[in-house]
Design goal:
With about 425 residues, the chain is α+β, with helices and mostly antiparallel strands. It has 13 helices and 10 strands. Strands 1, 2, 3, 4, 5, 6, 7, 8, 9 and 10 form a 10-stranded mixed beta sheet that branches. Helix 2 runs antiparallel to helix 9, helix 10 packs across helix 13 and helix 11 runs antiparallel to helix 12. The longest helix is centred in the last third of the chain and has 37 residues.
Length: about 425
Amino acid sequence: MFGKDFKYAVRTLLKSPVFSITAIVTIALGIGASTAIFSVTNAVLLRPLPYKDPDRLVVIGGDMRTRNIFDERESYENYADLRNATGPVFDDMAAVATFRGIVPQQDGTPEQIKNAFVTTNFFRLVGAHIVAGRDFDTLDGQPGPPPDPTADPAKQPPPLPAIAVVSYEYWQRRFGGSADVFGHPLQNGAPGSPVIVGVLAPGFELEFRASSNVDRHPDIWTALRVNYDNRNRNSYYLRGIARMKPGVSLDRVQELSELAAADVRKNFPIYGAANFHYHIEPMQQHLVAEVRPAILALMGAVIFLLLIACANVANLLLVRMSLRERELAVRTALGGSRWRLIRQTLAEALLLAGAGTILGIGLAYAGIRELIAISPANLPRLDKIAIDPAVLTFSILAGLAAAAIFGMAPALRASRPNVMEMLRGSG
C-alpha cells in the first residue's frame, strides 16, 4: 500500500521539476549545514576520550589567585604533595611534560623532535598499549643519589641512564621498525642519551587543550627521574592526570586537594601570598572548555537554519496543495479517506527530505574539509572530525524530522478539501 503512495509521489514530483529541485536544494542546505557542524560537535564535545575509564579522569594544575594565574603547570614537589594527600580518592596519579629538542639523524643532519617526560605509571593510568618492547617500571623513574658537593667531581657516581619509550610513528620513521634498538641509547655514544625499551601503539596522543602547551604526539617519552627538593618548588613544568576511584565525587577530591594546598600555603610563604590552590577539573571538560560555547552557538544557529528551510519548503508545499485542490476533491469524492490523503502528502515530503538528506550529506562532506581548514588553533581533536556512523544517524534523523515538520501542515490541509465548492466550480 505504501509502495503505491511512493510511486505516485515520484510521478507527481517529476511532473513539477522546478518545485522539486527548489525544495530538495533548500532542505539540502539545511541538512548539510547542520550535519557539518554536528560532526564538529560530535568529535569535540560528545566523543569520549581515547583513554581507560575517561569519565573518571581529571586534570590537575595550580591556581595562584592573587596573581590571577589559573590552571598553571605544577612543580614536581606540588605534584608529589597532592599525590600523597589524595590516596583515598585517586586510583592513580601521573604527570607529563613536553618540550621540543634537536637530535641528529642517521646521516648526521639535525631533526627537531617532540619530547615528553612522564612518570613511570603514566601509560598504565591512561590505558596506552606497548606494541613492542616493554613499558616503564618503577626503577626506571627512581632518582639517583644527589651529588656530594664535598667529594671529588671525578669520583662522583655516574648518573642513572634515562629510559625511553618511542612512538610507533617515530620508530618506523627513524629506525624502520627494527627491534634491534631496544636496550640501546637513542644516540649511540652521546652522553645522557636515553635507552629505548619500548614502542607505543600507533595513534596515541595527549588530549589537552591548546592553552596547556602540551604537544599531542610526542616522539620520545622519557621516564621522569627527579628528586623531591623544596628548593625547586617554583619550577613549573608538569601537567598532572589522575583517575578517581569508583563512586568518589569531585567535591570529595576538591576537599582533600584543599587540605593539601593549605599545607603548601602554610609552609611556603610565597605560595601563601599568591593564594595557591590546586586546580582539578574533569579531563573531558578541561579539553573543551575554551571551545564549547562557540560550538554550541554554531549548533544552535544551524538548527535554526534547518527550521527556516523546513518553513520555506512547507510554504512551497502549501502553495502546491492549493493548485491541486481539484485533484484532491475528486479523490475524496471517489472515496479517498482523510488518512489516505495525509499519507500521500507525507510520502511526497519523505521523498523530498530523503533526496535533500543525501545531497546535504555530500555538501557536509565538502564543508567539513573547509571547516578544518579555517578552524581556530585552539579547537581540539580536529583529526577526529568526519562523517562517521553517529553523524550519518544524526543526518537521517534530521531528515525525518524535517519531513515531519514541513509535511504535516500541507498534509492536514490536503486531507480536508472543500469537495462541493471545488466540484461545483469546476463543473
